[in-house]
Known about the structure:
Shape: rod-shaped
Structural class: mainly alpha
Low-confidence stretches: 1-14, 194-218, 232-237, 392-402, 411-422
Oligomer: single chain
Number of helices: 15
Order of helices and strands: HHHHHHHHHHHHHHH
Strand content: under 5%
Helix content: over 70%
Amino acid sequence: DHKQYMADFEGGSLLKLRSTVKQALLAATAFVSKTQLGRVNSFLQAPFTGTYTAQSGEVVGILKDMRDTFEANLKEAIATEEKQAAAHEKLMKEMEEAYKLMKSEYEEKQGMLGDNDSVLSQKELQLETLIAQIEAAREFLEKLAEMCSAKKKEYEHRVQLRMDEQTALSEAIAILNSDEAFDTFGTVTATKSGGTAFLQASVRRHRSPRATARASVSPASAKRSQEFLQRVAGTKGSPLFGRILALLQGNNPFAVVLAEIDKMIELLAAEGKADLEQKEHCVEERKVTNEGITERTKEITTLEGAIQELDTAINDPTTGLKAMIKADEETLQTNYESQVEETKSRKEENQKYQKDISNLVEAKGLLERAISVLRKYYSKISDKIKAEEVALVQSAKGKRDDPAPPATWDDKYSGQSEAGGTDAVSMLEFILKNTLAEEKAAHNDELAAQHSYEDSMESLKTEEASLQAQLAENRKLLADKEEELLQKRKDLKATEADKKALEEYLVEIKPGCDFITTNLDLRNTNRANEKTALENAVTLIKGTPAYTEAMTAAHEESLGDCKEICAKSEEHVDCKACLAKVTVPGYCAGHAGTVGC
Length: 597
């Protein structure tokens, strides 16, 4: 029977079938549980029962279902992979563009940073040079202040010496210019001849309009004036009175003495005005300087507070800009590392996924081929068995009944087509189903992982952009704050220097201002006394008969040839006509109201 049933089956094909089925079942064992693996082994090792029953129809159906499922999953996997590849390519393109942009900005910022460093080094060098110049200027100013102070004292001493010298010279000239000196020098050989002689060509006693200037002070009047001025000069210690006293002792003309007294009165007035102006200047300077010192003190306090705030804003270990920038840079670095790590992990997962899918697709093909071979084989055996059963029935109708043969095996060969065969094909279909389910799960896991990666990358990119913007803003703010801090420190140094200069100026003007403020009233009183004394001296001089006689004689001499005509009355037309050097009728013609017309 076996030979009859297997007559048309080629042995080579059966061996090939066995090898193929075994290969497919071995490949499928990687995707089944221990129980299912036991059933497969039972199928492969099941003994021959003598009867073969084909179950190819069911096996073929199961294998077709498995193939369709595999093909659908494969198409879905390919579409998903293409979509994910396109998304990955788009992401990489965006990342490359962002990288190029960031690289360009980085190179630009590096260039700006280099330029700023160069400018900063130049500015620092200029600052050092200017500081050195300022220090040199301050040292020179201190030396110059000392020199000016010494020169001021020297000048005051020289002024005093000049005043004493002028007094001495005036006194000597007055002595040498007196009439007694003329008479005496005329009798001495040393003063009337030789290189040291005092030349006096003649003595003329002519009275002219300038007679007053040459009139001498009478001895009695000069003596009273001298005594008065000596008392004042001795009390006040004034060189002005000493000079007037010297003029009176020299018996100078009234005009010289009076003119000198007028000059001295004017000098006292100018000196009083100068003292007042100096006091007002001191008061104003001290007021303005003290206000400036107060203002500079407030500015220094404000600048110190601003510098402290800026320093805290820049260098505070928790809230300072440097600490914030450092934290942002560390966070940005962590963000970048996270992107790199997640991208690397995603690539590794995708590679594992592709390898897994490749294995699943290969297993699917093997299972489909094994199921196809089994179904084809069982279908062929099933057709032969049915044909043999029909032939046996027809032949039995024309024969007599034979005795029963000995018991061997069943006439119908079913092989593994009944319990074992059906279970084997079902097992392969079950394995194929699980393989398809595993492939679908792999696709879904890959899709979920890709979505999670894209979401994570989007979040990281958003965080990166925010950190970069915040970092750029903080760096700009830091540069502005540092520039402002440097300017505030410069302003503080300049303000402190201004305050120090103002304080030194107060110290410099203190001696002179203290003197004029303390002694102004006393100096005004002394000047008033000096002026009163000088006016009294003028009154004494003008009250002497000699001064009156001199003035009368000078007036008479001023009349000239009209002296006798005007002796009666200077208001008469005869006198006025004579002085005008016109005729009486001619004068009356122009001055009708004159007496005598």
